[in-house]
Structures are given as C-alpha cells and as structure tokens.
Write the structure tokens for this entry.
Amino acid sequence: MKRSFQLISACLLLLSAGFAPALADGNQNCKPVVGHFEANVVPPGQGHCPSDPTAFCTAGRVWGGIQGNYQFVMTGALPSAAIGGVPTILFFTGKSTIFLKSGDQLLGTDTGSIDLPPGQGGFASLITFTGGTGDMSNATGQIKLRGEFDAGAATTNGDYIGTLCTQ
C-alpha cells in the first residue's frame, strides 16, 4: 500500500511539475484567452442547422482573446433527471466552429449543461479544441463558458476563459 501511494505521489508530482506537457509537441504556443460571446438560436433546417426537428443550434460571435463568428450544433443530449438530477437541466454534447477574423477556422467539441424552461436559464460548457483550418489546423486547448439562455428571446450570452494552443 505504501509503495502504491509513493508511485501515485510521484506521478502527480511529475504532472504538476510540467512533465506531461513535455511529452506533447514541444512546438506548441499556448496563450490564455478570456472574452465574451452572444448567439441566437438557429431553427432546424436553416443555415448550418440540420433539418431534424429536434436539432438545437446557435450562431453568434465571440470577442476578446478569440475573435470571430461561431456556430454550434448539438449532437447529443441526456436529461439530468435520467440520472437523478434536476428535471429542467439537460446535459449535452455538440460541435462548435469558430470562424476567426483571420479567415481560419477553429473546431471544438462542446460538452455542458443547460437549464431549460421553466428552469432558470443558466448554462455551463467546456469546449475542447480539436484542430481547424489554416494556422489553427493543430489547435488544442479548452475554454470554459458560463452564461444565460433566454428561451423567450432565443438567445444565449456569457463569458469564456481558457487556453488556446497553436503551432
């Protein structure tokens, strides 16, 4: 038992000392990013949103450390009540595309939760970057979003903070 504890402690120490990033591509340039976003719900079958009547999509803009327009398409959902959670909250996954002012695109996988009516409208999400186009083709990192969903106005808005890594 003592040996296992020592091994786990050594691994945690190496990770906290920055050993894990050394195993990654040493040519990555990472920077902190902080900013804001706002979007409108896009009805199914319009713009980038699939024609499936259950599709949930948004389109809007981001500014701050990442600047441009973005699109989101929900790819999966699970009511939190199914696992003992709040009845109005939905866990979701999706795909986000950010169209940067440079003309490059930044791609990400989005995971989060949203409080639907008659709930309070809050949401939180984590976007994990999975590449893109141009200078963003090898992008990595994550941003954490927190915000509000106004079902009546069909809008979302909020803040993000995280790290964007490029080569």
